[in-house]
Amino acid sequence: MDSVFEIWVEENDSDISIFVKGELSSFRVRMPSAIPDLITERANGVFLWAWLVVKQVLDLEMEGAGLKKIEAVVLTVPRELDKLYSKLVEKMGSESLKLIQWICFATRPLLVGELRWTMLIHADCPRRSLHECQNAGDYPSDDEAMRRRVQTLSCGLAETTSDAKIVQFIH
After folding, report:
1. C or N: which end of the chain has fewer Cβ atoms within 10 Å?
2. Which of 148, 149, 97, 92 has its CA nearest to residue 122?
């Protein structure tokens, strides 16, 4: 008997719309716009795409970008997830690369606190002790600050789990 396999893509535009509108609710109160609907439509049913674009919109808002600029950015985001990933990775700097390498090549998942220390370590580090590193000014003061740093440096491609505070890739 021959088996027939069928790929069935579930329609999740309404879930994406609920998510986007919820995440951008404070944004919408200050600047009523069609941006949530634009994100939902351009997501093409890909929740991860919508999540990454919402993060970009919130970052732009925090930077003080206007509605037209935010809309223009949303319109230039590649609709294919692999192209979006490429675009995000291309804009990463050396600190981002270091973060990605630590997450990727660690022999076990790293806790946020461990990653705070590992990000300070490099071959040419002028500091001779952990105390000197803490006082250097580039050490995130707590896990919440490091969580935000992970989000920023990874362009949203990494996150901290809420339960065990482990840093991991989102997908």
Report:
1. N
2. 97
Question: 160 with 147: CB under 8 angstroms?
Answer: yes
Report residue 4 as tokens.
């027939």
Burial of 92 (0-12, 13-18, 19+ CB in 10 A): middle
d(CA 91, CA 72): 18
What span, in angstroms and rounded, lies between the C-alpha atoms of 99 and 116?
Answer: 10
Domain count, the chain: 2
128 confidence band (pLDDT: 50, 70, 90): low
The helix (run of H) or strand (run of E) holding residue 169 is strand 167-169
Domain boundary among 65, 89, 113: 89
Domain end residue (candidates: 89, 121, 146): 89
User: 141 vs 166, which has greater pLDDT?
Assistant: 166
